[in-house]
Design brief:
Elements lengths: L4 E9 L6 H9 L6 E6 L7 E4 L13 H20 L6 E6 L14 H12 L8 E3 L5 H15 L4 E9 L3 H9 L16 E9 L11 E9 L15 H14 L8 E4 L5 H14 L8 E3 L2 H4 L6 H15 L6 E7 L4 E8 L1 H4 L2
Parallel strand pairs: 4-5, 4-6, 9-10, 9-11
Antiparallel strand pairs: 1-7, 1-8, 2-3, 6-7, 8-12, 11-12
Helix pairs in contact: 1-9, 2-3, 6-7
Length: 353
């Protein structure tokens, strides 16, 4: 079994909370941060688009999309640093980022600039291995694999892993509306665009940093056939998500029967719901009275690359505070272009029984 990743700290900023604790409390209470935005549907009626905007003061500089995402990321990362107190220069920053198909004139080719802007806002020096991972909602899981390798190499003693994203811009909203993916009176099975950031501070065993109770166990990645993604005209198969779930269980060397609840980045779209349902029926074979699922997008909207880290934060917080359905959670992520990923979040005490 690969060594678990120990949670050192976490941070989040969403439409329902400016900290991880606030966000988790709002999700527990099923509070939704949706309201009419300044963007409008095209057409005769031109109704306002319902969105999930982070309720923070906005300056003229924030209207620049790259500045907006850098500000959200820095806010969540600062919370991580304050809790975990990692060492400058020995901490790598791995940021989940939008997928390349989401072209934007202010974002394209500016991944290094994003890192520099975050570093300037925080006044914190990151290790040179820091980088941006442009894989959408599943990018955080990919970043966890890279973090595990970096920590094993000994080049860093802590990794800040997470994502920041915003769909509240003309380019993304026009694309989503054109492909009939935005929720509206005419499209009930659509997504609500949002923005946010979520980050985890992780370390390996033997760290001198103070760690939280929960840890990240097995991690699994897989790639769906391009002909069967939400970007294509194909139908969902669940095959890649099934592979990712099996890979996570195999990596942790644990049976599926130990999973007591699930967290998913489902955002209200029909494609993702069917893909998840197919995987559910083929992976979880042990008889259970029920296998509860949590999908935070019900409260925070579609937050893209930030979704994966938020799932882990919600799982760890719920189990630490005692209101989770169980002490072993499976987190599932799916990117639009086909990346499928999963990881186990568990209380080490539960695995020794």
């Amino acid at each position: 079994m690969t060594d678990p990743l120990l949670l050192v700290g976490c941070g989040a900023v969403t439409s329902v909370g400016l900290t991880a604790a606030q966000t988790c409390a709002a999700i527990r209470c099923a509070l939704a941060g949706f309201e009419e935005s300044d963007f409008f549907f095209e057409g005769v009626d031109g109704d306002p688009i319902v969105a999930a905007r982070v309720p923070s003061p906005r300056s003229p500089q924030d209207e620049h999309p790259l500045n907006r995402v850098a500000k959200l990321a820095a806010h969540a990362i600062r919370e991580c640093i304050q809790e975990g107190k990692p060492t400058p220069g020995r901490t790598a920053l791995l940021i989940g980022w939008r997928e390349p198909w989401r072209e934007h004139p202010e974002w394209d080719g500016k991944e290094d600039e994003l890192l520099r802007r975050i570093e300037r806002r925080l006044d914190f020096r990151f290790h040179p291995s820091s980088r941006v991972i442009p894989s959408g909602r599943a990018s955080v899981f990919q970043a966890l694999v890279e973090a595990r390798d970096l920590l094993k190499s000994g080049n860093v003693n802590c990794c800040l892993v997470g994502g920041a994203d915003s769909f509240l811009n003309e380019e993304d909203l026009t694309r989503l509306e054109g492909s009939f993916r935005l929720k509206s009176p005419d499209i009930p099975q659509g997504l609500i665009p949002g923005e946010g950031a979520a980050f985890l501070a992780v370390a390996s065993g033997g760290t001198s940093l103070k760690t939280r109770r929960m840890s990240i166990r097995g991690i699994g990645l897989s790639k769906e056939d391009a002909a069967h993604t939400v970007m294509s005209a194909g139908h969902p198969t669940g095959r890649a998500l099934i592979s990712a779930l099996h890979a996570a269980l195999s990596d942790a060397q644990l049976p599926e029967s130990i999973v007591s609840w699930r967290l998913s980045d489902l955002n209200g779209e029909f494609y993702g719901a069917i893909d998840s349902l197919l995987a559910l029926s083929r992976v979880y074979r042990t008889r259970r009275d029920r296998l509860e699922i949590c999908h935070p997008a019900d409260c925070v909207g579609e937050i893209g690359a930030a979704a994966g880290a938020l799932l882990i934060i919600v799982a760890a917080t719920a189990m630490e505070k005692g209101y989770a359905p169980g002490l072993v959670a499976m987190c599932e992520g799916s990117s639009d272009s086909g990346m499928r990923a999963a990881c186990l979040v568990a209380d080490p005490a539960a695995l020794k029984r």
